[in-house]
Every structure is written in structure tokens, then in C-alpha cells.
Amino acid sequence: MSRRTLVTALAACLAVAAPAVAPSTLAPPALAAERPLKIGVLNDMSGPYADYQGQGSVIAAQLAIEDFGPKAGRPVELVSADHQNKTDIGASIARRWFDQEGVDVIVDVPNSAVALAVSNLARDKNKVFIGSGAGTAELTGRQCSPNTIHWTYDTWALGHGLAKALVAQGARTWFFLTADYTFGKDLEGSAADEVKANGGTVKGAARHPLGSSDFSSFLLQAQASGADVIGLANAGDDTSNALKQAAEFGIAPGQRLAGLILNITNMPALGLKATQGVYIVTPYYWDLSDDTRAFAARYAARHPRRAVPNDMQAGVYSAVAHLLKTLPAVTDAGDGRALVAAMKAQATDDPIFGKGTIRADGRKLHPMYLLATKTEAESKGGWDYFKAVRTLPADAAWRPLAEGGCPLVKG
């Protein structure tokens, strides 16, 4: 199918929304006697990351269950909850799900502090955690777990990949605006390490609270630094607000703005005029291939605002698909370590990320892509915001296995 035909199909899907799938309809009646596999989507449903994951991740999981649930060998149920970006709330939900509600697998979990807490609980309870929205590379580093898989992206890949690309273009001095918690600090650290490794200089950083609405003082510090690049080590609404206010301050083109985790979800509110010259690194973009366009059309038909998926929402689909394809090979689906081991043993293959593998440290490997925002003249409208610049192969995109410090990796 041609790109033009698929774009037309996407537009048609946006006009009609299909109904959501109720958990009770996700498995055929013949499997009713089997103990169900219960999957919980845990993320931010109401805060700064609600558009990044939120209900979109639930839709992605539903699509994967529809596609692969009938062959899973048992019924599949889906639940979801809002962790409100609070570690205590996220941990409490995960504990209740594991102890009282029969949840076997928790997926997504943006907010690295919450993700680390859920990973620890999954290990203690011998359940499964698959992070798609989670960013911290510590999930496959010193805090890796035999019960955790890190699926879509991490702070090491985004920070190193984008910093290396921009330094190669001559952007040698950097200043960071950083979300003041584990995720932002990890992202800043990864980018800063790559800048310095390639002969660049970090002039400073300003840390802001999660969910900030006023970035004026932070942007003034960045502007005063005279750095070539202002690196936004944040995500969601924080990234959008920082970019909007940077445009109002007229920071570009004198200084380049690097959205270290900017993606398609931010773009409708920002527009191309406010994001000219911005590069991103991502493992998925809806317009990369016939397969990614076809998936985006299905997803958009379900989404209440007819949005296409971002990489983290697409990652939920990919992760749940692989989980369900692996399930028949596991005798006891309640044994989290056995299920994760089986997922690692089987190569991954789906229309989202293509072929891949899962390393011993739990890192899912697939290519990453360097994208640039299109000009207003280049864009055909709708969700047409980025163009591919180059592919970063899997063996170069991720932190080397020996450098993470994961106790699961044999020396």
C-alpha cells in the first residue's frame, strides 16, 4: 500500500471512532475455564504526562490483546489506574493489584521514581513489570531485576543519541533545563556525558519542579549562559511549556533548543513555527513505514481526540504483543521470573519496531531514529510534523551491556 493511500486511510479512521473493548470481551469463551492473565496499565491519567501515556496506552494495550490474546492460551484481562506521578500512590496501587486483585503484569509507568518502586515490588512479589513510559536507564543498570523489562526508550539512548548528533553539527556548548527528579537528572547526565566526550562544554543547568507552568526565570538563566544549545531534560507539558515560552522570548535562532524527549504528542499545541530546527531521537514515528502508518490509523480510530500514537504508546502495544506471544511457552503464568525469562529467550518481531531482542539486563533492543521537524511548507498538515534524518542501529543506540552495572550480567 502506498504512503498516499495509507495517509488517506488514516484520515478516514479519524472520522469514525470505534468503541473501546471491555475487559470481559478480550478473550474467546473457549478459554473461560483457564486462569486469566491480568495486565495493569499504570500511568499518569490526569497530570503533565497524561497525553504522553494516559488513556492512549490503554488503547494500545487493548489493540495488542485483540491481535494476540486469542492465541495466548488463556483469557486476558486489562485494568488501568492513575499513579498521579506520586511514588507512594503508584506503589500502593501496584501492591494492591499484586496482592489482592490478581494482576500478573504491570506495563507503562512513566515517572522514573514510580517505575523504580514498581520494579522493586514486582521483584519482591515475583510478578512482571514492563516499562514503556519509564525513562531511567537505572532499570537496566544497578537496579535491574529478573522481573523487569525496559521496552521503548531510556535516558541513556535519548541523551547520548541527540547530544552526539548536535555536537557533530557544531553545537558544542550546552545549558540544561531539567525536571528536578530521577528522570530529568538521568536525561541531563546522559546528554552531558556525550557532549563532554565529544569535546563540548556544559555551561550549567537550571532545575525546575515537575509540572511547572512558568519557565521564564529558567529560560533567562539559559539565555544568559550564551550556550549554543538549551537542552530540555524534561517531558510532556513541561517540554511544551518551555518551548512555547522560549518562542515568546525569541531565544531561537540565536540558541538552538533540543527537546530531549519531544515527540508527536507535543506538536499540535506547539505547531511547527515554534519548533523549527528541532531534532529528536525516537524508536517510533507514525510515518516511518507502511506498517507504522497502518498501526497509527487503527489507533487513531480509537483515540477520543483521533491522535496518532507516540513511541511510548506504541511501545505498550509492542510489549503486550510479545508478552502474549510468549505466554503459551510458560507453564505457570503467575511465575514472573519464568515469564520474563521466556520473553528474553524469544526474539521480538512486530510492525512497530520490527525485529529485536531482549538483553540479559532487560533492555529491549531495536533501532532508534534521528528526526527533524519539517518546515511549514514541507508539512502536508494533520500529524505530518517530522522527517527522518538517519537511523541509529540497535548496536549503537543503547548503552553497552558491560557498562550498566546490572548484577544479572555475568562479568
Automatic annotation (TrEMBL):
Keywords: Amino-acid transport, Signal, Transport. CDD domains: PBP1_SBP-like. The keyword Transport applies. Residues 36-374 form the Leucine-binding protein domain. InterPro entries: BCAA_transport, Leu-bd, Peripla_BP_I. Gene3D superfamilies: 3.40.50.2300. Residues 1-22 form the signal peptide. The keyword Transport applies. It comes from the Bacteria. Belongs to the leucine-binding protein family. This is Leucine-binding protein domain-containing protein. It comes from Methylobacterium isbiliense. The lineage of its organism: Bacteria, Pseudomonadati, Pseudomonadota, Alphaproteobacteria, Hyphomicrobiales.
